[in-house]
Please model this.
Amino acid sequence: MKILAIETSCDETAAAVVAGGRRVLSSVIYSQLEEHRIYGGVVPEIASRRHTEQVVNVTERALVGAGLPLAAVDAVAVTHAPGLIGALLVGVNFAKGLAFAAKKPLIAVHHIRGHVAANFIAHPSLEPPFLCLVVSGGHSHILEVTGYTGYRVIGKTRDDAAGECFDKVARVLGMPYPGGVEIDKAARLGNSDRYKLPRPRVENRPYDFSFSGLKTAAINLVHNAGQKGEAIDQNDLAASFQHAVCDSLCSRFFAAADELGHKKLVCAGGVCANTGLRRMLTEGAAGRGRELYMPPLELCGDNAAMIGAQAFYEYREHGGATLSLNGAATLDIAGQATE
Model:
């Protein structure tokens, strides 16, 4: 089954053609990064406008790259939640129109399910069940993946997502957007033991994350030093902060794996590209005798190939969506609306 997939949940306009949920025939991404960089973050209105301008272009390029006319694909898939609502609606409405005009089934895909499915592309032998750590700019979850469309939330952030904290701390340090990449670069040159930062915990929720206090501690450290006329070693603080975030993520992830007895561990999401996190996960899994699966860097960020991969399993198990499909800014991975 060949699926044409569309992804417009944030600031990448993407299209891909994926066969059988595992084989990428083409993948095209138009990044708005440089335009949003001058504002220090994604501007939703600009993102929506650029999606409107680029969605036809990336779709045509994806079809050409796959060597297929639209008539030769078997279905059209689209990210419908969660994300920036204006951005999502561009993709959803385009996909609905395309599916209707071409008389193809329409498949709705949850963005986080897509991130998990990036590993099915990278690791063709990977099958559920497994435990998955999903870490991105807007999400931090520990998921028990019981099947291709079956998920149980074991832990999640109670405030900020890890990727969001990277960006905010980077901004205070004067680093350009996206800050996570800059923190990672600086951390490679720094001493992670230089600055002592907290590891906040959520009472009675051992696998939940809380990054707000950690972020605030790092920001206050910078501000207090500035008020006293003291210098902050940017590389050392980046290394200390990155280590604290990765330690918070990995300690809970491995503890959950131990309690639930999972031998297969998976990481997904944009922050999975962080070198410190990848190293800590690799070393921790090896030390515990666990199998670890992570996507290559090009599949960590938002892309349509992962949406096409998950769409195959969504259609196989639940069929297609109707043309009444709408976008949703907030929707948990089980399909329930969230605040």
Residues 234-260 form the longest helix (27 residues). The first strand starts at residue 2 and ends at 7. The two ends are 36 Å apart (CA to CA).
